[in-house]
Amino acid sequence: MNIVKTRICMKGDTSAMDIQTAPPLLDFENVTVIRNGKEILHSLSLKVDSGENIAILGPNGSGKSTMIRAITRENYPVLCDGLRFRIMGNEVWHVGTLRTMLGIVSPELQLVYNRETTGRDVILSGFFSSIGLFMHEVTPEMRGKACEILEFLEIGHLAGRPMMRMSTGEARRFLIGRALVHDPKALILDEPTTGLDLHALHHFRTTIRKIAALGTNIIMVTHNLHDIIPEISRVVLMKDGRIAGDGPKEEILKDDIIGGLFDVPVTISKEGDWYYASGF
Length: 280
Hints:
This protein is α/β, with parallel strands linked by helices. The protein has a single domain, classed as 3-Layer(aba) Sandwich (Rossmann fold). Helix content is 34%, strand content 24%. The protein has 11 helices and 11 strands. A hairpin with a 2-residue loop joins strand 8 (234-239) and strand 9. It is globular.
């Protein structure tokens, strides 16, 4: 069954009703995370509705990656009064099940995959949440799904190439494929364009827009305005482990707001549906 057709079926006549009745993708209230004795997230509150595409924008060290690790249950919030920490309506998850619902792509994962593992095996490893296949049993259904993803992402010609012999952009597309094997509810992208040249950035943008158009929630975690694809309508700002702003991107992506976030004078320009920062 082709991934594109599957997604289109999921977005049939009942999709609007499903989104309206579904619990929020994320529902956090008073979330504090301490790592190595240091408070990284400070009483953070955030709600992301089902079907909503958002960008989480902030400088390095603002707590963005810690929040992702909280979502994936690598970090746990401090138990305190008023704590609410729900993902898709549930506070308790089996980590393996949760990771089938949330696809993650990060530069750290790409560093781990700088090895002889082929692109096809990288995608297949997503079924097992493993780094490589090792002794896992790959079924014909899994291989078929991997072929559909290779076709959808237009990377079939690279399937047999080892990751360490790919460009950064090529390898990043295979990590996206790995994240898609379970048809996740949301795709979480952590600084996804790090190391990409203009050609690779173009392919990345095109790929993420295709995925968003077919119904997967996009959570773009970044410090670059040019990562915010047109399908993203809301921007959440993070600074010093706190939410520093939250609203429609047209209201948030302003000179004074973004300049204050990064502590530099900045000019925000818009070209078509894309935003860029200059003047710093």
